[in-house]
Amino acid sequence: MAEEEKAVLLTQAAYDKLKEELAWREGDYRDEITERIATARAEGDLSENGGYQAAREEQGKNEGRINELTVKLRNAKILKAPPKGKVGNGSLVTLELAGKEVQYVLGARDIAVATDYEVISPESPIGAAIMGAKAGSTVTYKTPTGREISVTIKEAKPLK
Prior knowledge:
Elements: E1 8-10, H1 12-42, H2 50-74, E2 76-78, E3 91-97, E4 100-106, E5 118-120, H3 125-130, E6 138-142, E7 148-158
Helix pairs in contact: 1-2
């Protein structure tokens, strides 16, 4: 029995970037790899032809990425970030952590393709701790080593 596919939460910008990558991989890049394989094949003995082997390996990686992107885009749900002041998937959060101010986007790592901010997962210890919190609040989370760390949410706003 096939495992149920999980929804992939993406911003519209991330969805568009992944769709653009898929089109490139299915089109121009696939054609380029096919040409390299044909050129290497024309050189003769394939068993000792490094160019042929490398092109075939690249073809396999490309086809794997095409399959991965196809599944992600099929299961994509465009997320609607919570309103300003509340932390949730798609929020750009400014945190005070260990005396420093840092900014992160809370969400799936696939969002990273469309932003210059670091992305933290809602399932990570810090992500789970800040999820649903409001700007101005201080939350505590446990690191994998068992250490407790406090973090203050300075600002939360929807990622544009």
